[in-house]
Specification:
It contains 4 helices and no strands. The chain is mainly alpha-helical.
């Protein structure tokens, strides 16, 4: 007699998604959003767009943590390393936006 309990369909689906890489699209898009914001704001004059820098800083902080934690949830070595890398790089980008915001004159 087989006394083992069968795995539920949800865990099979989650394992397949983790191994296939389909769930990487959203975290990677969130991870590259702060870099896109930097490129977009390089064309603006900072003294005229202080509110934009504040919003960009807030978005960068949110993307920094969201993308990293989504990658941490995958629980693979490469995903955790990528999450740490994005956490550090996007944290620096958010810090730079914050410094640019503080440095601007009203």
């Amino acid at each position: 007699m087989n006394t083992e309990t069968p795995q539920s369909n949800e865990t099979d689906w989650q394992d397949k998604e983790r191994s296939s890489g389909k769930g990487l699209l959203i975290p990677l898009l969130l991870a590259f959003t702060p870099a896109a914001l930097v490129l977009a704001t390089l064309t603006l004059k900072p003294d005229r767009h202080r509110a934009l820098f504040v919003v960009a800083c807030a978005i960068s902080v949110a993307c920094c943590f969201a993308s990293s934690f989504m990658l941490f949830a995958r629980r693979t070595i490469l995903a955790i390393l990528a999450g740490l890398l994005f956490l550090i790089l996007n944290g620096l980008i958010a810090f730079a936006f914050g410094c640019a915001t503080l440095d601007l004159k009203f």
